[in-house]
Amino acid sequence: MLEERDRLRLLVLSGLLTAMSIVFSRFLSVQIPLSGIGALRLGFGPLPVIVAGLIGGPVMGAGVGAAADLIGYFINPFGAAFVPHITVVSILTGAAPAVLLRALHHNAYQRPGLLMYLAVIGVSQAVLHIGAMSLIMFWVYGLPVNVSLLLRSIAQAILIPIYSILAYAVVDGTYYRLNIARRPIARYPER
Fold it and tell me: Per-residue pLDDT tens for 16-38?
């Protein structure tokens, strides 16, 4: 069980990462329009959501992803209708890397390396932000899948290594700055 102090630290960290994700995705990102709709957003919005999952586990990552997407939509909706499919992708963006890390990293007391982060983030981003988002853009807006797949693949080929390096640096440092290092790395908070 986590102590009350550790739970409070993770809650505060969740709020901070949610706010960072909203600012990064809604105000500090570049929107690329395709066929008159903003189909591709380049920025660091998913990074705080991924970091939340890697630090606090899949539940914290999913919560930060949901909060960032819903609050971000109400702050700045980009003029489009609310699409719950995109919220599901945002939730999975926080949960999937944490679940994959737990499944692939078997030594709970050894810190995962950069290659592990690259694999975990790469697989989750490829499945969610290349595959799922291309299908969602087709289903909701009628955007051709092949065009969306090509552009998203190019964007993620650039963003995945950047996300991995930054997530590795942030997560590796956070375990020791927040004094979470005394518990196993790949084990997540229990309720």
Answer: 999 999 999 988 888 877 666 66
In a domain, 55, yes or no: yes
Confirm if 112 and 101 have CB atoms less than 8 A apart: yes
CA 63 remoteness from chain centre:
11
Q: Give 130's DSSP letter.
A: I
Q: The CATH number of the domain where 101 resides is what?
A: 1.10.1760.20
117-133 pLDDT, tens digit per residue, is 999 999 999 999 999 99
pTM of model > 0.85: yes
Tokens 């994700």 map to which residue? 21
Backbone angles phi, psi at 31, to 5 degrees: -100, 125
CB-side neighbour CA atoms (13 Å) of 68: 36
Total number of domains in the chain: 1
Nearest CA to 164 out of 55, 59, 66, 50 is that of: 50
